[in-house]
Amino acid sequence: MLVAALAVAGCAGARYERETFYENRDVTVTLRGRTDVNPGYEHPTQISAVRLSHILASLDVRFADQQKKNARTPVVPIEAIYPLGKIVSQALAKAKPEQEVVVTALLRTRKLKVFTDKTLTAFIVYMKNDQLVFHISRVGFTMPKNPNDRVHEPKQGKSYQDFKVLRSKSIVPIAPQAVAVEWRHPDFRKADAVRIGRGGKIKRRTVLIEEPEEEAPKETPADVVDISTLTSDALRQLADLEDERRRGSIGEAEYVARRRQILEKGAR
Predict the structure, then answer these.
(1) Which of 139, 133, 145, 134 is nearest to 160 (CA)?
(2) Residue 61: which of 234, 207, 189, 227 has the closest Cα?
(3) Is 74 helix (H, G, I), strand (E, B) or coil?
């Protein structure tokens, strides 16, 4: 089960004000705001706890040392998905426009009924441009045995482990360790990434196959067109296609092929 959240060391450089939103023996959630700049987050914001839990269950990373091509490691431990979803939902509803939500939690694992390993999950989340942005700081990070060894708090753009966040349904990487989530998407209304097992135990659905990304067709002169020559219907189709591409609903190959079809059929 989760144990008391760690006391983290502050970040040098940027100036922050911190407000502890939630703290118990399981997790710590902090509202952290910059004092030198206002990032203009779209806070406070209302997202249901269930929807947020389903989003958390869909976040995966791949470590650089994982040999299996399609290996995926969940960001949030399965037993923490729903508790964290509820707390993060409440924190986003309380946060101010200058505050990001910082989450840290420890998982304690018993080995041979004697030894205890402590691993850390930590991330930053905020709303920007109507997208829920996650900066993943640590996943399954083994805590140092020496209590005097300090562990720095999560920071945007700062890498502590060698992994990358993976693309998923309505989840698009915007940096190696950050993703933008189309949180309104119907995918997150139901628990696609988890299932309820016997005795009500929550289990994670395993991704068995990860499709290799198709190579996009090369651009041809036909792909370059004066938009003034297109019909209004073709322009609407192009706008919808761009939106699908931005949300990560389609791959680059499908985008180029469909765009080419629209351009071929949409001339006045």
Answers:
(1) 139
(2) 207
(3) strand
Between helix 49-57 and helix 81-94 the angle, nearest 10°, is: 120
> E strands of the chain, at which residues?
2-3, 16-23, 27-34, 60-63, 73-74, 99-111, 115-128, 131-142, 163-165, 171-175, 178-181, 194-196, 202-204
* Cα–Cα distance, 54 to 81 (Å, whole number): 8
Q: Are 170 and 181 spatial neighbours (Cβ–Cβ below 8 Å)?
A: yes
Cα atoms in the 13 Å half-sphere on the side-chain side of 194: 27
The three-state secondary structure class of 224 is coil
Residue 117: its pLDDT value, please? Answer: 74
What residues form DSSP beta bridges with 163?
Answer: 63
Which tens digit of pLDDT belongs to each residue from 65-80?
876 667 889 999 888 8
Cis peptide bond prior to 44, omega within 30° of 0: yes
- pLDDT tens column, 126-163: 999 999 999 999 999 988 878 788 888 999 999 999 99
What is d(CA 75, CA 144) in angstroms, rounded to the nearest whole number? 20
How far is residue 34's CA from residue 20's CA, in Å, rounded to a whole number? 15
Mean pLDDT over all residues of the chain? 79
Distance CA 108, CA 267 (A): 62
DSSP SS3 for 227: helix
The domain ranges of the chain are 2-204, 221-265
Instruction: Say if residues 42 and 33 touch (Cβ distance below 8 Å).
Output: no
Residue 16: which of 102, 85, 77 has the closest Cα? 102
